[in-house]
Amino acid sequence: MRRALVVVPILTALAACSPSLPDPQSAGAQIYQVRCAGCHQLYAPGSMTAAMWEVQVGRMQEEMLRRAVNPLTEQEQYLVLSYLKANAAGAAPSAGVSP
Description:
Blueprint: H1 2-17, H2 27-36, H3 50-66, H4 74-86
């Protein structure tokens, strides 16, 4: 019980430091949260352009291999990149969403 009293505030504080992700229930956002936040702080999708995300995800794939961590599968990489590009800096707003 005492351990829970220590862990819960720490997890709450860490969650407060993470960016608020757009469409957090989407498959791409879920994979981004699970696979990427396991190693480092998440970056807001709008913090980079679509082209920058392509480069960054490629670099992270190489880094995972270097660290003997399973890289993203092709499907995971597609979903994460699609999500990040759709919400990247300069991306067109989604259909049906008013500015």
